[in-house]
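Dear colleague,

Thank you for sharing your sequence with our group. We've completed the structure prediction you requested, and as agreed, I am returning the results in plain text so they can be pasted directly into your records. Please verify that the sequence below matches your submission; if there's any discrepancy, let me know and we will rerun it promptly.
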Amino acid sequence: MKKIGIDFDDVIYGFNRQYCIFHNEKYGTNKKFEDVVIYDMDKIWGVSPEECVKRVNEFYISDYHGNAEPVPGSIDAVKRLAMDHELHLITSRRDEVRPQTISWLEKHFPNVFTGVHFTNQFGGTGPKKLKSEVCREVSAGLMIEDALKYANEVAGAGIPVLLLEVPWNKGDTMPLVTRIGSWKDVTDYI
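Please find the predicted structure tokens below.
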């Protein structure tokens, strides 16, 4: 049985698709998922980093958050992986959004993850950790990720990564990073 780390936002939870809907309706913008071509959200939305954090926090406590759809193919693929592997959710989210995150997980991925780990990369009061640290702590032999910077960080620590192709993760990867097109490709690979 292999232990696998799986990211949350835009790996199983359709964050950027849902955030576009939220932002367009609340702030009168007109962006779609395909427009999110860089990881820095403040630059995508044309606001200061502080304003971006404020808006993302508004999203977390809104109904939009709970109504987000899973990433296509993720439910079946993750359930399939859970039959033969120990799965750990490893997210850069902050501890303060744990209730919203767990509530969504229980709705769409009940009893699938052995552990849910928050690394607090986006502020918060909890201790900040690298995703590679959490992977080592849970003995994950593989990480599934969407963010290039986290994929390279984990691969740099010697842990293989499957990087789901999304508009914002173009760029050079470390040798242990394998780009992958879909959740079906993930299960075929594993």
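Summary note from our side: The chain has a mean pLDDT of 93.

Kind regards,
the structure core
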